[in-house]
Amino acid sequence: MWESLHTVRQYLWRYRRGMALGGLCLVMKDLAQALQPLMIRGAVDSFRSGAAFVRFAGYLVGLALIKGIFQYWMRVILIGISRDIEFDLRNDLFAHLIRLSPEYYARTRTGDIMARATNDLNAVRMMLGPGVMYWFETSLTFILAIAIMTRVDWRLAIFAVMPAPAVSLAVILFGRVIHDRFEKIQAMFSDISSRVQENLAGVRMIRAFVQERAEMRRFEELNRAYIAQNIRLVRVQGLFQPLLEALIGVTFLVVLWVGGQQVLAGRISVGSFVMFNTYMGMLVWPMIALGWVVNLMQRGSASLQRINDILREQPSIAAPPDAVSLGAVSGAIEFRDVTVDYGSGPALCAIDLRIPAGTTLAVVGHTGSGKSTLVNLLPRLSDPTSGAVLLDGIDLRRVDPAELRRQIGFVPQETFLFSATIAGNIAFGVEGATAEQIRRAAEMAGLAGDIEGFPLGYDTLVGERGITLSGGQKQRTAIARALLREPRILILDDALSAVDTQTEEQILTHLAGAMQGRTVMLISHRVSTVRQADAIVVLERGKIVERGTHEELVEAGGYYAALCQKQMLEEELEAI
Ligand code: ADP
Ligand code: MG
Predict the structure, then answer these.
(1) What residues line ligand 1, using a CB cutoff of 6 Å?
(2) Are the beta carbons of 33 and 141 closer than 8 angstroms?
(3) What is the layout of strands, in order, in the sheet containing 535-540?
(4) Which residue, judged by its Cα, is nearest atom 2 of ligand 1?
(5) How many Å apart are CA 472 and CA 496, to the nearest integer?
């Protein structure tokens, strides 16, 4: 528990003033509360003298009032701080998540991340707020009550603290079990969240393959296991509380018996006896609260570990400490002996390639030949396993990825639209883009006509809660997005695969202007797209097997020539 508090100390430290104030309220509240039984003793012992009795009664009411006021502020301040820390932690978690590399998301389930960001974060807040507060409150109550009892009658006090070792033992043993079981519960909740998230994302597939029942069954199984695990936790908790209560009940009995004898023997006053019993009563709540607090602390620390798992992840691609500035980029690209291995043999093997500034390189090849892998290296979505990629002669690993990416207009093979207007989607990442700039980008991408056909035009909502664009419209939105940035380097990864040949040609004519003067890497299956490029390379199993201009490659009679012939034949057939 303490080591987990250690990991959040920077958050606690940020609110040290408020914590000190809240802590002060806590001490005042506990003091007022601990003094109450003393007043009760005074009142009982002065039963016969009316004036003193009224005075003690007055003190008692005063203390109750003070206790109430400080208790109120203690809760407002300390619980408030736990909300502030929750706010900070959630922000930090999001800021961290958004920095992590694609590679992290490839091996982590979205539902798992969501579970940690919600359920676990809440458990941490419960630990830092009510958990810590009641921990200190109850500890102090214990200490004060026992200190006062010892002063009044130390023998009786010894009987009163007798259950303490047993309680500590129970807390330690049960605490460990609760921690383990709660850890399992949170892991299972992650599984459930992931399952739901995947099912919702893949709802079309489930429908199309009639898997509703099967998925329902699988979900039910998970859900049942989750509930069973929860019940296992409730079982230990259910044992824990009565055990604590039984311990204190027995102590009550002993104190009543021994104390009663003391009173009869005239060793202590009736007032002291009543006071002792009040203190004992006062200790019942902390004992019960202790069980609850231990529970909160164990849950919180299990959850904090799960959140720390995320926070400990470092983005595999980050700016080096001595980052070189790119300055004004001309756009000359060089791949120098580049090999990429995802762990199952090389996806790219010893690639040497130069793309002079302002020229267009087209890449063709079968699916899986490594085309996307090649272009993903440029914005550093991944780094080469060996070798280097250079821009204007500077190794990309020496520059800040953010600066690098601002130079690149990237249209990935699989694009993503946000739940926003189509104008907002095109202007993504470009602050202060004017409507005119957006329209021009849309026009160049061959999308303007489509947009004007929508009832709300550029204000049409797209993405999850808006209209669904066709594959080709999505691709063109992504192209417009890339063009709006007016990048030095433009990367089109199969960016026109979902439009027909005719539309493609229109777009290419528009694009020709935009591509002028920029370095372009263009992946496509269509000869009609790539034939104008300054150079064409053919990839096969991660190796460059052909390179040259359209004419040279047709002449060479390899893969490219065959592709060219096949597509010409198809075109002729279409014409008939
Ligand atoms: P292309 O774009 O030419 O279709 P890719 O570059 O996407 O080919 O893939 C090249 C090879 O690398 C394929 O065998 C693919 O399975 C593998 N690959 C691609 N991305 C990953 C990844 N993130 N993790 C592991 N293997 C990958
Ligand atoms: Mg690809």
Answers:
(1) 106, 342, 347, 365, 367-373
(2) yes
(3) 408-411, 489-493, 519-523, 360-365, 535-540, 543-548
(4) 372
(5) 7
Residue 344 CB partners (closer than 8 Å, separation 6+): none
Q: Whose CA is nearest to atom 17 of ligand 1?
A: 347
- Counting Cα atoms < 13 Å in the Cβ hemisphere of 528 gives 18
Per-residue pLDDT reduced to its tens digit, 300-315? 998 999 999 999 998 8
Could you read off the pLDDT of 170-199 as tens digits, one per residue?
888 888 898 889 889 989 999 999 999 899
Q: Give the closest residue to 438 by CA, choosing from 461, 415, 448, 420.
A: 448
Q: Per residue in 221-252, is it b (16+ CB within 10 Å) or e — as a string?
A: ebeeebeebbeebeebbeebbeebeebbeebb
CA of 330 to the centre of ligand 2 (A): 26
**Residue 44 Cα, ligand 2 centroid: separation in angstroms?**
87
Atom of ligand 1 nearest to the CA of 371: 3
Put residue 331 in one of left, alpha, beta given phi > 0 → left and psi -120 to 50 → alpha.
left
pLDDT computed for residue 162 by the predictor:
79
Q: State the SS3 of 416-449.
A: CCCCEEHHHHHCCCCCCCCHHHHHHHHHHCCCHH
Task: Tell me the per-residue pLDDT of 211-262, one tens digit each, with 9 for 90 and over.
Answer: 999 999 999 999 999 999 999 999 988 888 788 778 878 888 888 888 889 8
Lookup result for tokens 């969240």: 193
Q: What are the backbone dihedrals phi and psi of residue 211, each rounded to the nearest 5 degrees, phi first?
A: -105, 15
Which atom of ligand 1 is the closest one to the Cα of 370? 6
Tokens of 300: 């919180």
- The pTM (predicted TM-score) of the whole model is 0.79
Which residue has 């953010």 as its token pair?
402
371 contacts 415 by C-beta, under 8 angstroms: no
